[in-house]
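Fold this sequence, please.
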Amino acid sequence: MPPKARPKKNLSAMKRARQSVKRNLRNRSALSTLRTLIKKVESAVTAGSREDAESALVQATKALDMAASKGVIHKNTAARQISRLTRKVNTIAGVSAA
């Protein structure tokens, strides 16, 4: 349980506390994975390698959509991050943004 949480007294509160610990771990892991995938795209863009950036973008887009569908992040946040990453990749790919 979180360090500040005092022990719960009824069964349903104890169960909710257990569930929140599990969910917190799962969400933290998912967010860490997202951050790693986003950094891969950005580092590929910085390095100027077009193929690596595009393949990393596909992975990051899939992961962001999945996280949004699972409720780890908000759907608008996922859409915004996908849009920004796509624009960055398009700048090195030589595609003009419309």
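The chain has a mean pLDDT of 90. Residues 52 and 81 are 18 Å apart (CA to CA).
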